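Fold this sequence, please.
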Amino acid sequence: MPGSSNGSTSTKTMGVLTVGGLVVVTAYTVALGSNGWLWFGWVVLGLITLAMVTTHSA
């Protein structure tokens, strides 16, 4: 079905964005010091990704 393929693609895209976001936030923290808002944003992105994976599996 075309719809199920699209859901898998968007979940994979969110996973890539989450991992990429972790790399960016970590690099920022190493270079310029910790920023709580960046880490908070990454946690929210991770939770959204986790929710997408969970609902896609169900």
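The mean pLDDT is 86. The chain is about 90% helix and 0% strand.
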